[in-house]
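lol ok so funny story. i was supposed to be doing the assay writeup but got distracted and ended up predicting the structure for this chain instead. priorities right. anyway since i did it might as well share w the group, maybe its usefull for someone
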Amino acid sequence: MHLNLLIILFIFFCIWQFIEKIEVIGVSGGFGLNYFIFLYFFGGYINKYKFVIKDLRARTYLMLYIIFAIFNTVVYIYGTNHSTEFLLFKRISRLYSYNSPLVLIIAYCIFQYFHNIKVKSSLINYIAKYVFGIYLIHENQYVREILWRNLGIIEDVISSNQYLFLLKILKFSTLIFLSCWILSLIISKLYYALYELLKSIYTRKMN
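and the output, tada:
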């Protein structure tokens, strides 16, 4: 029943936009509340059953991730550069939206890849501790204003030719990752120090 629900929601929220876009569904390119609820059900299914339909080896998930990512990029670049029909262009551009079926499959594959491997590196595990903070920081409304408007990153990327486009995305992604990771580390250390201070004060008062 859970899987049937996911399939129905997947068709409505991810596939149907390439047939006919229905605004009343409220997907909003993957930013809508309805799509968030779908992702919540999707994540709940993975948490309960560990995989969707059939589990694969970690190496297979990685290969599928690479194949779908390259395919999605090639189709998008070729379609947007050679599409003369506006409707076709709009539909092809939806391949990069948050609710694109390929984007969801790509995200699922890379998640399952890391879920099925055991990382023994202390350095990687240390870095991973503060990765969630990167998301919280760069998605903050004030930080987003600085990143995507004040610094002119978007204008710099979209003004590039197709050969520099991916390189600039990689460059800015790396810079944002590193800067936000450092901020996440500092904030976490300060929070932990404050927590320990308040804990010690509370303990002394209780004793």
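Residues 118-207 form one domain. The chain has a mean pLDDT of 82.
back to the writeup now i swear
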